[in-house]
Amino acid sequence: MSPQMEEKVEAIYQEVLRRNPGEVEFHQAVREVIETLGPVLVKHPEFSERKIIQRICEPERQIIFRVPWQDDKGEVHINRGFRVEFNSALGPYKGGLRLHPSVYLGIIKFLGFEQIFKNSLTGMPIGGGKGGSDFDPKGRSDDEIMRFCQSFMTELYRHLGEHTDVPAGDIGVGGREIGYLFGQYKRITNRYEAGVLTGKGLDWGGSLVRTEATGYGATFFVSEMLKARKDSFGGKTCLVSGSGNVAIYTIEKIHQLGGKCVACSDSNGVIYHEKGLDLDLIKQLKEVERRRIKDYVEFHKDAKYIASGNIWDIPCQVAMPSATQNEINGKDAQKLVKNGCIAVGEGANMPTTPEGVKVFLEAKIAYGPGKAANAGGVATSALEMQQNASRDAWTFEYTEKKLEEIMVGIHRLCYDTAEEYGFPSNYVVGANIAGFIKVAKAMVAHGLI
Ligand code: NDP
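^ thats the input. predicted complex w/ NDP below
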């Protein structure tokens, strides 16, 4: 980047810092994108003239609301709800809802910002948004979850619509929560508007493969990165952090493609099973019985539970962080590379710190950033919307094939864009530029709004 361009981008970033104090994750996400956009501004001076980057960094609408609910003992709780409708240049706002005690505006804005470019990369007609609450679902009964979801939707419903804003799941929000949210939306609006939420149950408008989509998609993306290096998952030792929705279906696809996943984790510790994880058991513990992964060792005496362990200490060839943001720091990245890791595919959003990303890029390993690698989830949500609109239901095989084609397409787009702009094999640059250009062109076409 020329010094003038660097100065220009830095000034935009400083303005983002000034306008959004304390929102550190949002700052990080913005910095990571805009510092790669210099070459685009050179090629497209109209984007600078119309202040497209500055406008992209400012959400179109931010909604913050009170969510009161009662627990099983009758005690009243008050949480805070968020929905950030970030950018609708390419379609209705689309992005998940996160329920986790760490949620605040800065987390929702980082996720919503990333979502704009991710959704653009899918090639589907969807804009970017994200929402959630600082509610902690851990240890809550079914009834408590339902009461919380009903209260949350009682405010949120007025902002949603199949052509306006279409939420889905994220951390703490799976099929059960989407069911309660949809039920309340239907009750208040008196409309069976299937396309207003994705991740629905299969009996009432959901799409096959949506549950598997993010994990499967991330694994397809890594498989494409490996193919580009004339390699494959066959026989590779892999690590997958987390043990939630994304982690489980990443492990499943890795095993189907011939890799061996030896460890997964949660916020309390790590399970290490050298001969390969028993995925049926993990599904039973996590999806059916809603237990913690430490219980895995009750069933496999040769597996180890490492309380407060760091999964990235375990040697592997492929690492797929699938838990949360900033879970791989610079030191973890160095350790991974030193231990022989040749590919990293991010199932989670922004799981690698800027220092970690630098290590991966300098080591020239295959590094697939979240906004490209985990786009399969939202892409399949868009397929769910398509099926809802046409009142159709596709088979598992057909939908999975579509997902795979989309991921192959995203990989190709990122790969080719990186080459075109002079950064061969740099998927960070490829994903940011390819995702940005489409949104920017649409914003120019729509005028100053
Ligand atoms: P789940 O709630 O199903 O699972 C999250 C997993 O990550 C759990 O094992 C959880 O452990 C762990 N985790 C969450 N927060 C932390 C934390 N602060 N520290 C350590 N571990 C943590 O969520 P998903 O699998 O849906 O989401 C995982 C990641 O994937 C997120 O970054 C999400 O944004 C991203 N993503 C999800 C998509 C989807 O379709 N669901 C789509 C695209 C991206 P514990 O139970 O101990 O909290």
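The pocket of NDP is lined by residues 100, 102, 169-172, 214, 242-247, 266-268, 322-324, 347-349, 374, 377 (CB under 6 Å).
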